[in-house]
Amino acid sequence: MVSGGGGGIGAAICRQLVANGYRVVATARKIERLQDLHRELGEKLYPVALDVTDAAAVRDIASALPAEFSAVEVLVNNAGHDVGGRRLFEQGSAEQWCDIIAANLQGMIRLTHAFVDGMLASGRGHIVNMGSIAGLKPYATGSAYVSSKYAVHGLSETLRLDFAGRGIRVTEIMPGLVRSGFAEQRLGDAQQAREFYDSFEQCLDPDDVALTVLFALQQPAHVEIAQLVVLPVSSR
């Protein structure tokens, strides 16, 4: 299962997984965002409308899947946003900042909880959490987003300890700047988003991140990739 699979990094992960023999459940808030991906990838991809901030919907998601997609062994927690971000703390409302936390952290907790019992029962599973270098180094105008990614880092570290020796691996992917639809979603303006990305010497591509997810998943069962920090070369 790949949450936030409707575009950008999530869609790239879905493509890589299907190309490498996985059957994938892809979720997004709006099913329309998954329709083109479904047409592209065919019956190996099962699209589901899911808002990870909807506690009841997430709680019921495992039982709602068709039989051939129900045994989820890999969960990629990729859903999240920074709508209204890149502003000083006092320039946004408390509700806006809390909504970012709800999607980026609470949604991850809910979705992981929905599938972990099945993984524990089978004695195998892999949880991949999409973090960020913002979870290692804060920046001004990122109070809610940075807070959420610091929390994702802490959650990933703790889950790894909780599941040690129980057949579940936990990997945190921590990308640098990725050129995708994320900035437009954050800023609400396509031109501003292009200018934001163009202000950097180099950006990652969604496929760069998707390949790191695939790398972690393809390791032998006794190998757990704890963290992968992925940066454009110009960020050295």
Secondary-structure-based class equals: alpha/beta
Question: Would you report the number of β strands?
Answer: 6
| Major sheet strand order | 3-4-5-6
Q: Would you identify the regions where 5 or more consecutive residues have pLDDT less than 50?
A: none
End-to-end distance: 33 Å
What gross morphology would you assign?
A: globular
How many distinct helices?
Answer: 8
Q: Considering DSSP H and I runs of 4 or more, what fraction of the residues is helical? A: 40-55%
Helix-strand string: HEHEHEHEHEHHHE
Task: Provide the gyration radius in Å.
Answer: 17 Å
- The overall pLDDT, averaged over residues, is 95
Strand content: 5-15%
Relevant terms:
alpha/beta; 14% strand; 4-stranded parallel β-sheet; single chain; 236 residues; 46% helix; globular; two-stranded parallel sheet; 8 helices
Describe the structure.
The protein is an alpha/beta fold and 236 residues long. Helix content is 46%, strand content 14%. The chain is built from eight helices and six strands, in the order H-E-H-E-H-E-H-E-H-E-H-H-H-E. Strand 1 (24-28), helix 2 (32-41) and strand 2 (45-49) form a beta-alpha-beta unit. Helix 1 (8-19) crosses helix 8 (206-217) and helix 4 (94-122) runs parallel beside helix 5 (143-162).
